[in-house]
Design a protein that fits this description.
466 residues; alpha/beta; nicotinate phosphoribosyltransferase; TIM Barrel; 2 domains; 7-stranded antiparallel β-sheet
Amino acid sequence: MITGLYTDRYELAMVEVYWREGRADVPVVFDYFFRTLPYKGGFAIFAGAQTLVEALESFRFGNDELGFLRREGFDPDFLEFLRKFRFRGSIWMPLEGEIIFPVEPIARVEGGLLEVQIIESLLLNILNFQTLIATKAARCCLAARGRTVAEFGLRRAQGLASRWATRAAMIGGCVSTSNLDAAAWYGLRTAGTMAHSFVQSYESELEAFRSFAAVHGPETVLLLDTYDTLRSGLPNALIVARELAVRGIRLAGVRIDSGDLAYQSRVVRNAFDAASFPDVKIIVSNQLDEYIIRSLLEQGAPIDVFGVGTALVTGHPDGAVDGVYKLAVCNGKPKMKRADGLAKQTLPGRKVVSRYIDQEGWIRADAIHLYDESPPTLMVDPHDPTRKIKLGGLRPEPLLRLVVKEGEVVGPLLDIKAAAAYAKERLQCLPPEHKRFENPHIYDVGISPGLAALRDKLITEMMNGA
């Protein structure tokens, strides 16, 4: 269970000052957003909302937590204040599975300065990680062209993050997991075959296959490459398939975990088809990612299931989404971070995001605008003020939805299956040029003229020392 210690020390160092100065309840607005899309891709898949909300419900400081903080030197009176802490703020987020892009607020958090600040590390940890993994899974599923992608990553995951990795992988499009812990926790479908050690523990490969099939019957999947995929594993699997057929049972599938997967899968497919076993599924694994999956299918490999592990649950090659959490309003005044370049500046004010859809249902652009503005018909490129983007003829819809209101869950929180279905639906609405792996088309995200004017005004004031 997550407690109030699931945070960075500097969060408590800051909020102790707010508490001491009587500023704990100053009303603020923070934005969560990221600046760069993972994997040099054209989109990201939002994940982690339900996990965040559940974590906030247990984000408390009990005796054990307070005892630790007392030893860390925090003021005893401040710790007694923390004993009563409950998040009572409000949060706006997209539906899980939504397609998201850089710069735009993905979560807006409002409440007292202390409570909104203290949840920063928790929010970033959950949303950054699950969005990274959901996006990787979506890319693997796009590459698979409708074939099944299973998550096989527990043994290579970053410790206990495996549970969240599995959750996010399902939202991104995987249909099953080898991770029993995550499956039990979230109610997921499981999948698994056998290890090479199982085959090696018997006197012969055929004996191993027969023993496995005797226990697992119609769910039997045989691993072919312990000794020699085509000269040993395949002939022995055919023998077992025929023996099962005599009993009225169909062999479920075979798995290949090494070698030339494209070539071997063709030979295996032809052999099972020739033996009148066209329903036997071919499963492949071994350091797969979206690029290898795409290559295998471009070679015409007759593969039914891709078991993806390390690259998926670690988000390889990107270690993280660069999401940040920045102050946008404090005590009614818009705030922004001013940096040496537009790329690092933040956007001030209480903001919303409108997504624009064309007449054919394609997602075309997102506009960030102030809360009290109507969806604009023109937006400004946040990195190039000279570039204007017209939005006429497009239908706006709100991206952010109220999920938590004054500490109470009020908005839609999709379960994993619903979030996965939503992600699939939204990806179908994203034009294909944004889904390319190489040089994807850049999606238009802009700011309203009113927001641009507010930003420029604050920059001028800061430059003048106001």
